[in-house]
Amino acid sequence: MQAGAGKTTEQGGAMPAWARAVDLFPPPDRILSTILTRQAERYGDRVLLVAGEARWSYAQAAAIASASAQTLVDAGINPGDRVALMCSNRVEFLQVYLGCAWLGAIVVPINTALRGLQLSHIFRNARPALLVVEAALLDAIATVDTDVELPSLRWTTGSTAETQAALTPLPALGDRAPAAAVRPGDTVAILYTSGTTGPAKGVCCPQAQLFWWGIYSARALGIREGDVLFTTLPLFHTNALNAFYQAILNGCTYVLEPKFSASGFWAAARAHHATVGYLLGAMASMLLAQGATDDDRAHRLRVALGGGVPEHIHQPFLGRFGVPLVDGYGSTETNFVFAGSIPSNRPGTMGYLADGVEARIVDDNDSELPDGQAGELVLRARAPFAFATGYFGMPEKTVEAWRNLWFHSGDRVVRDPDGHYRFIDRMKDSIRRRGENVSSWEVEQTIQSHPAVAVCAVYPLPSELGEDEVAAAILLEPGQSLQGVELVRHCEGRIAYFAIPRYVRIMSQMPLTENGKIKKVALRDAGVTADTWDREAAGIRLRR
Question: Are 251 and 39 in contact (CB under 8 A)?
Fold first, then answer.
């Protein structure tokens, strides 16, 4: 998107805040330190962040970023060093993030549910110089493989008086550091996205990519200056992190809740006077499943992101709550590249291609396919550094994904003649469960470490709430037996709770392709069979 392109007006004819931000921050200035400094001068005491008891004004956020950077400098952290951050939706997460961005260090946010194999891989790949971990998550760190070299420098957040003496707390803020000479293409964060046929890949997100997330998302959602952006999604994912940029760039207030609660969502939205919300497919279904009340429309929410919400949910959600859900599509590697209208004229689709992005649907040889024919979605951005720059420490995977100078999404998509794009399925072997990407490879490695398991295949089955449930087909070693609950207990503590299979099917033989590989499509097509064990039907609760 070029400055000035597609600048529709807000109510009253004024230029929308996102369009002003494109002009206010020309390409060299699309770095967080400059954005914070300039917006602090513009908005001063206006509230930027609400998180629990914490309230930051725009001016305070800039001061906190520079002071946090100084604590990192004092600890010996340099530009380009990685800082692993394993923390829930606490204000300390943003404090560390802002300090790293100000200094030019690289944040490595870690999913708080990761354990064992998955967590070990991140530490091996990222090689962080510092680990900042919430005290409540120290047990997760204990599951890392013994041969993994953890950083000797470790800070904790949220520690209690009883544990404080044994831990090094996050340093108190003091002096301020000048903003480092950071460039728009410099990596600000490495976000790990689930692998498909291998371990998770660390997506290198440059400073300018997060700027464009704030611009594209604000445009898609119709965000106005002064809006209150309300999210319950985790900060270690792109969605909640880029919503913070939406707030900064558009003069909004960002409200961060600890986690999603179907029963408490609307009460919290009312309490914060929220005007924009962020939902994933399963969340919208859960909200509709709550009993109707007289307060269902007693809120100020004007619009909500609804990427992945099934088509049949849109109209009932709008009818009951009065909130249109915005269709959309994006990935950690790309940006908010597709968005629907408000309200959607084709609910459940990906929407229209965003201005500033190019897209093609291609065959196995990267040749473009005509409208109406399904193929792989490939993308590229016109603005510099609006997309990720590659996978950290994985040059071969980077070249594979960005071959021919297009990012290959791995998603099978159709472009309709009217310009709508429709998601068909995943071309790669991945699973999406309630907003989390699950690597079938990682789950298979964990299951196959059980002595009774000879071979296993992990695959998705449809969920009642939308997206997928994790299923595992297992071939046992001769003379062995295995109950579904035993497998669940084996997985606990070794992989994230959301990756633990709901469905377990013990097989006498696996369906195979002509070249001897397990034919997962046959397992998916079979669905929940009579011999499939269902963890939820059995009443088995996961230990988190």
Answer: yes
Beta bridge partners of 368: 362
User: Is 70 exceeded by the pLDDT of residue 132?
Assistant: yes
Q: What does the angle CA 492 – CA 286 – CA 316 come to, to the nearest 5 degrees?
A: 155
Count how many domains the chain has.
1
Percentage of the chain modeled with pLDDT above 70:
94
Q: How far apart are CA 498 and CA 246, in angstroms?
A: 28
Say how far apart CA 517 and CA 12 lie, in whole Å: 61
Q: Is residue 482 part of a domain?
A: yes
Q: In this structure, are residues 387 and 333 in contact, taking their beta carbons and an 8 Å threshold?
A: yes
Kindly state whether residue 471 falls inside one of the protein's structural domains: yes
Whether 496 is covered by a domain: the verdict is yes
Question: 417 preceded by cis ω (within 30°)?
Answer: no
The one-letter amino acid code at 388 reads A
The phi and psi torsions of 131 (rounded to 5 degrees) equal: -120, 120
Percent of the chain with pLDDT over 90: 70
How would you classify the pairing of strands 336-339 and 532-534? Answer: unpaired
CB contact set of 351 (below 8 Å; sequence gap of 6+): 220, 326, 327, 328, 329, 338, 339, 340, 341, 344, 420, 421
CATH code of the domain in which 510 resides: 3.30.300.30
Token pair for residue 182?
A: 């950071």
Examine residue 494 and state whether it is found in any structural domain, yes or no. yes
* CB distance 26 to 184 below 8 Å: no
Count of residues in the chain: 544
Domain with 446 in it: 431-534
pLDDT in tens, 220-231: 999 999 999 999
Rg (CA), the chain: 23
- What DSSP element (H or E) covers 445? helix 440-447
pLDDT tens for residues 464-492?
Answer: 877 789 999 998 888 899 999 999 999 99
